[in-house]
Amino acid sequence: MISENGNLLKKLIKDGRPVSESSKENSKSIESEYLKNRLKISKFDVSEFGIDEEFDERITKEACRLSDERIEYEINKRVDLRDLKTFTIDGKNSKDLDDAISINKNFNGNYILGVHIADVSHYVREYSCIDKMARRRATSVYLNDRVIPMLPPEISNGICSLNQGEEKLTLSVFIEIDKHGITVNHWICESVIASHLRTNYDDVSDIIENKDKKLIEQYKDFIQDFEEADKLAQILRDRRIKRGALSFDTPEKRVILDENRIPIDLITEERRAANIIIEEFMIVANETVAKHFVNEEIPFIYRILENPHRNKNKVPSTFVTTYDLGLREIELDEITPLDIQRMINSVPNEGVEELLKCIVRKANRQARYSSSCTEHYTLATDCYCHFTSPIRRYPDLQIHRIIKDYLNGRMTEARRQHYGSFIEEVAEISTLKSRTADRAEREAENYYRKIYRAIQESYLMR
């Protein structure tokens, strides 16, 4: 508990501790070692959020059985992409690698973007014990001190993770994109890949942003891929912003813990080049898949964010009057995201810009899952879904099953009725669980920030 830690911190002040007069880095090391021996910080408690943390024995046994499955018999049924140059970009410590990308140029100069997603649905069959459990959880939860996965680690970190050099079953979407960022064609298929490279956000960003010579040599066979990916991501991003998508690129602060859950730093996480690449590629893949299936009129789960209700939230007239934005008090359902983006870009300084962004965020209703396809307001698109993370989000896993039935000619009227009978319930449960996970993640961050501040105050008071 924080109160208990507070008492310990007070005792630290009285007892004193070794003080290093050397470098700040060495001082931090001594402080960390001292705290490790003196503080016992409880892990953040998720019980009040109703989040299941452990997997029962039956689930674990089934996951172990699935992890032993061989895929040779399945490969011949799929598009073989093992020779295609695919790679993953994730956090350095990520274990559940559920998306890989490939990028090439067509003869006409258009980009051919490949987004390859782990085929979790091949292993987690509908109505199996693992499926029922995953449906209840609906999402993985990413806390400062640990990850609570939706699926057992034998699946999420093992058989479905797109590890370098390992043959993995995937669902692939290839998207042909012209120089203006317009999708001119697409193709969805069941596939098998063998990722040619596992890399991370920092390395790719340092190559793109800083031209790091050591990293360029290390990744010399992929430099052109990184550069083309960066160019395409910028094209896609520019197009999204021009159509009115709201982009809130405010750096986020995050508490860093050591191996004993002691907060040792508060860092600012910038959205770097590689983060933008993956974000833009996943957005265009999600949008492409959603548009395909809304046109097919097949029961599906969409990700929507509706325009706020009339008379509920307004952009304060004080902003308009004080900063001469050329607008009167405006109801948010009467303006487009493009109008809001222009307002944000018109304010005179960064502090006011961030305040306006905060007001607009609060005015927007939270995104939710739905069986009905309506707009996603902040992305400024009329059709969107979550397709790219079936390891950690249940809606993605569910629509993978729908996609595979469609691709294999199994989408009969009976199957349409089958999916139509429960996808709205799945959407509602998943919305509730994802919001609960968001709350838990925020509270965990606040929990460790309080401890971090208490520790820092104890140093100052020595």
Automatic annotation (TrEMBL):
GO terms for cellular component: cytosol. Coiled coil: none annotated. One of its GO terms (molecular function) is RNA nuclease activity. GO terms for biological process: mRNA catabolic process. Residues 78-409 form the RNB domain. Pfam families: RNB. This is RNB-like protein. It comes from Peptacetobacter hiranonis (strain DSM 13275 / JCM 10541 / KCTC 15199 / TO-931).
